[in-house]
Amino acid sequence: MTPMPLLDFLRALLKGFAQVFFMNNALTGLFFLIAIGVACQASGDWGPFWGSLVGGASATLTALVIDRAKDPLHTGMYGFNGVLLGVALPTFLQGDGLMWGLIVLGAAMTTIIVDALSNVLTKTWDVAVSTGPFVLTTWLLLFSVAAFDGLHFIAPVSDTLAVPQAARWADLDALLALQVTLRNISQVFLLNNAWSGLLILLGVAVASRGGALAAWLGALLALVCATVLGADRQTVQSGLYGFSAVLSAMAVAVVFIEPSPRSALVGGLAVVFTVIIQGALNHWLAPYGVPSLTAAYLIAMWLFTLPKMDLLIHPHQPNRSSSFGRN
Question: pLDDT digits over 142-161, tens only?
Answer without folding.
Answer: 999 989 989 899 976 544 44
